[in-house]
Amino acid sequence: MFGLNAFDSLKHSKSVAGKKSYDTVFSQSFWNKVTHVLEVFKPLVEVLHIVDGDRPSMPWLYGKLKEAKEDIKSALNGVEGNYKPLLDIIELKGKGRLDNELHVTAYFLNPFYFAKNRADIGGALEVMEAIQKCVEMFFPGDEILQGNVINRELQIYKNLEASFRAKFANCYEEINANSWFSFDPVGWWSNYGGSAKNLQRMAIRILSLTTSSSGCERNWSSFAMVHTKNRNRLTTEKLNDLVYVQFNSKLFYKKKRNDILEASDYNKAQHMMVDGVQDVESDVDEEIDPITGATHMEVGDVVQLREPCEEKEFVSEPEDNDENNDAECRWDED
Fold first, then answer.
1. Does 136 score more than 90 pLDDT?
2. Of 113, 116, 182, 303, which one is least surrounded by beta carbons within 10 A?
């Protein structure tokens, strides 16, 4: 916009704010700062993407947050005066929220991280205190079982003995750090954790947890679409079935169209940002959703949802004093 000759003819180009904006956009120092901002926030956005995803994020949150801090240090050239104020903010916001016993224990029990740094992770005081606390909470009141898990089964895992020394148990060491998404820590424990039955059960439960309520909130949105003012007499069982079908139908369409983006593909999401329902050409494929009655309109890679009709607000008339007359209702068209 600023590079066009037509900009010179606009009144804004003569104003103080316009000239200041022009100088800012064509300033190399401004774009250098923008680059630094992106380098700092990209690791944090990737962590948020993991937390907000549809797979269990407990095995990855603590480790990915540690990696994000290191990436921020590298982006700011390792100058402590530059990165320390940012890391202090991250530590302040995460303290008591992202560093409790479950997060630390999941970090320890995830072979993807433990295999890379067994000595430091297994010997860290905060890690061992978190594991002991989780064992006490997972097996409450049974001190014998707690001692067996901490003193025997935990040592088997730390030393990679018994079933952990199986031929394919160490295959995770060969996994490239960039392909963490393909690694399944729950499946690993299911396959190789047989020598530590109690620790195996505890690891599978912890590593299967999520770290946010995003999944619940998306499900609540589906309930709100099904249970409307016009359909408010559905039984609980039927409502649950409708939401189940609708929610999984959306996931099916997303995977079919490959609309689920990775954190590294955030720049590809621009074409998906649409404002309302746009006009489409005659060659648009339309599909009627059997649950909502809405029409899916596909234009290239963009799929929009058009509601079948606008919902009208129901307003009741005031009750008549006459005992023989029932209360009347009308639809408010305003």
1. yes
2. 182
Domain ranges of the chain: 15-207, 214-306
Q: How confident is the model at residue 3 (pLDDT cuts 50, 70, 90)?
A: confident
Q: Which of 300, 305, 272 is nearest to 284 (CA)?
A: 300
Tokens of residue 331, six digits: 């639809």
Q: What's the CA gap between 254 and 259, in Å, rounded?
A: 5
Residue 95, pLDDT score: 85
Residues paired with 315 in a beta bridge: 330
Q: How far from 176 is each of 88, 104, 172, CA to CA, in Å?
A: 30, 22, 9
Angle at 191 (CA atoms; ends 164, 204), nearest 5 degrees: 95
As a whole-number percent, the residues of the chain with pLDDT over 90 amount to 25
Q: What is the DSSP string of 61-113?
A: HHHHHHHHHHHHHHHTTT-HHHHHHHHHHHHHHHTTTTSSHHHHHHHHH-HHH
